[in-house]
Amino acid sequence: QVQLVESGGGLVQAGGSLTLSCAASGFTFGAFRVGWFRQTPGKEREFVASIGWTTGNTDYADSVKGRFTISRDNAKNTIYLQMNKLRPEDTAVYYCAARRPPAVDYKSWGQGTQVTVSS
Predict the structure, then answer these.
(1) If you average pLDDT over every residue of the chain, what do you get?
(2) Mapping DSSP to helix (H, G, I), strand (E, B) and coil, where does residue 30 land?
(3) DSSP classification of residue 27
(4) Structure confidence at residue 30 (pLDDT)
(5) Is 46 in contact with 14 (CB distance < 8 Å)?
(6) Of 30, 77, 89, 103, most Cβ neighbours within 10 A?
């Protein structure tokens, strides 16, 4: 059973930085792609970034390109989201999720971690 546990959320001032972590277990990592998503009340969950566990290739939403970096530590089975130059509009609950290609839907989700950026 796939398990994903996020951590690292908190309150930060605009322009600041924060790093989120996603501890993963219960699957064959080579076969998965892991992504970060975020959601604010009343809005749909939106894609932020993703990374191939084996390939390391990354993908980003236009709104975070140049500010956020997704990475993974294979030895620790952990995925990170380094967030720089944070803006108030980045405030959301951030979720870690995994899918097994060629499936396009993310089936496994963490519980989420709150990120609040004050202006």
Answers:
(1) 94
(2) helix
(3) S
(4) 64
(5) no
(6) 77
pLDDT tens readout for residues 50-90: 999 888 999 999 999 999 999 999 889 999 999 999 999 99
Which of 70, 50, 76, 67 is closest to 12 using CA atoms? Answer: 67
Q: Write 26-29 long-range contacts (CB < 8 A, 24+).
A: 26/1, 26/2, 27/2, 27/98, 27/100, 27/108, 29/53, 29/54, 29/74, 29/77
Buried b (16+ CB within 10 A) or exposed e, 19-51: ebbbebeebeeeebbbbbbbeeeeeebebbbbb
- The C-alpha atoms of residue 21 and residue 82 are separated, in whole angstroms, by 9
Sign of the Cα torsion 103, 107, 113, 117 reads positive
At 104, which amino acid appears? V
